[in-house]
Amino acid sequence: MIRAEHLIKTYVLGGQEVHALDDVSVTIQQGEMVAIRGPSGSGKSTLMNILGCLDRADSGRYFIAGQNVSGLSKNALAEIRNRRIGFIFQNFNLLPRMNALENVELPLHYAGRRDAAHVARKSLDVVGLGDRWHHEPNQLSGGQRQRVAVARALVTDPAILLCDEPTGSLDSKTGEEILTLFKSLNAQGRTILVVTHDAQVAAHCQREIYLHDGRIAVPPSDAAEERDIGEPVLTSILK
Amino acid sequence: MLFWMIVKVAFKSLRANKLRSVLAMLGIIIGVAAVIAMLAIGTGAKQQVLDRLSAMGTNLLFVRPSPRGTAGVISGTQLNLTEDDARAILAKVDHVHALSPAVGRNYQVKYLDQNTNTQVQGTTPTYLAIRDFQIDSGKMFTDFDVDRWNRVAVLGSVTASNLFGFSDPVGQTIKINGINFTVVGVLQSKGDQGWNNPDDQVIIPYTVDMHILMGVDFLREIDVQCDAGSDLDAVQSDIYSLTRQRHRIQRGAPDDIMIMNQGEFIAAFSATATTFTVLLATVGGISLLVGGIGIMNIMLVTVTERTREIGIRKAIGAREFDILSQFLIEAMLMSGVGGLTGMGLGIGAAWVVGQYSPFPTIVRFYSIVMALVFSAAVGIFFGFYPATRAAKLDPIEALRYE
Fold it and tell me: Does A95 contact B at CB distance below 8 Å?
């Protein structure tokens, strides 16, 4: 279970303060599958970075599985990322020149585990790629790569899977397959957080947290959203 | 386990950029090869000369006219050493075991239609013992020959084969500067010493050399062999005072001869050779340093290129230390592989030089260790800055990097 309270994050861009997160509180229960959605610039990436312990909030508190992680050192955060969080990225982010198994083993090596090969094989079996372990990323299709990334995220048995636009680089069919995989993992009790701008992806989740201008907001109607992410200049002229 | 993983990845990334890696390692390769080869050549040459010098014995004194000149400008030598000086030294100075006066220059030496230009050394029979020569065939000329100005000659082995090929020179007549000499013996070969070949010379009685060939009254030098275990400094100062007296040098005026002893000669040569070797090794060392800068350059490029990889590694839990050690290991691997390659090349080069030069090359173990340790140190030193840059990267920025 993760809980973030009153997160505030401010950037200074060109001498101007930008409130990326403005008092955001989020609670995600164990076993939930939640979407964080919002248009670009809404602060969802910032929130994802903070929840993923890649970044620290200016103020606010953040707990993962009961442990307060706000104010931890860089190395302690690295350890939290290693053990508590599984990352899945839009563009897979597998390491080139390493085969699927080595990619999946890597978090275990950083954790100093000695049973890495064995555990990594099991994790690849979970995503259905047990027989492709020796393939390097460039020998795999997009969907397969994302499965390897899922296996890598799962391998340390993290408290939460953080997925940043997991279907963004996949065609719709493969995207569906990945989402189905997420759902089956969720059915086995995994806590999953999907960051997306896509309402259809968010629809696969049990609930959605909608961000707008750094605040949690009520999701707009479909029409309003079209205007939001469509062609704002043209629509305003048409008005 | 993580360590081997890192080494494996480092190897793969070196292989993935073969040309670049080789170019980056080239400086180290050349540096290490140069250091090892130079030290091997220097050590070998020095060793051989020192062996030769020591074989002659350490109880030798070389008496020569001192260089003539004013204010450090040398303009020839004084002509003042005579046969009588030599006789006086032998007769009056204690602990002088033997001496051989020497005179000579290069002459054209002919036998039938063969001719060669070689050093003609005028001396006495004691020359053989003092300079550690052995007779191979025939015999050495005698003191009687010296006294009688007999025109007899003993040939060095190279001179003998130059003039006579495979036939026996003993008993034959050669012409030195147009004057007939009878060959009475041939010396055993000592091997080339690099700057002068003791096997390429003709030895004749010094009286003949001085009075018949050259027409001079002065000796070039007197080689004095002292009794074993005698005090060379004492003998040396006795010779100085004797010649001052004989040459009527005023009190306070400088000596007109100079005496070098074998020990000083060895020490001076040894020091020169060491300086030279160090100089050569330093040049190699500088190349190592430049090689290190090349590695740093490539490592900086690598870190930039692999920013995204660094971001990924950080996201899945790599600490700063993990990233630092990864890139440090890569840099060390590069300098290590370069160092080993350079070592192979250096030893190979030393071997080739040893085959084709008159002196052997000696690869000392310490020079290999030194070159490898230095190249590993270069890897650590020049890898550290790029590795630190990699370790300090912000994971979010790094992940976003295209």
Answer: yes
